[in-house]
């Protein structure tokens, strides 16, 4: 008879009389003792964050939670209108819309900055002048390749995204203004020299930089944006239940469509 297979995990495990999570007794050491943001960080990294790391991480979650009637929010509300018996379907529909234009910028910016930093390895610039030089080279390289710089520009906050300086400030206060945030800030200073116009550093981009500086896996940066947006979508559903607008959104399209000939 073959031996029973084992599946090692440092996450949740249950026995007849206890549940452990991350090596802790769930009931005694985690419930009521560890905040959800701190726990999410801990689960992803399998190390307990410092209070400063928790503050920066939770500031990111707050920054990304809800931005009003975005496509993800509208999708969630319309899906709930179509299938009110499927809350999970409505939430999933909204989360599936997290991509390169909404939410995905967080990951895209983190990866972009990480790739740029990899060109200098461990010799990060020592002052703003050095960071500006690296930022100029980074923006010029992106433009030469016909690529956009993730985190630059915003369709609403054209004069400046209020989340960006606030997250810079929080990270500085906690001593966590690392190389990704430093390069992102430098891109904000120098990009007009290359692009010929001034664009704001958007909140999704600064969130990606902050998460990367916390040492969180680049492959999970979008997942953290989706974690934040899940709370926002729950809020959208709660408001839809109290004050429904999805049917009006549906009818505004359905009653105003205009037939046109097929276009091959």
From TrEMBL:
It comes from the Bacteria. One of its GO terms (cellular component) is cytosol. GO terms for biological process: carbohydrate metabolic process; tricarboxylic acid cycle. Gene3D superfamilies: Citrate Synthase, domain 1 (1.10.580.10). Pfam families: Citrate_synt (PF00285). The lineage of its organism: Bacteria, Bacillati, Actinomycetota, Actinomycetes, Kitasatosporales. CDD domains: CCL_ACL-C. This is Citryl-CoA lyase. Its EC number is 4.1.3.34. The keyword Lyase applies.
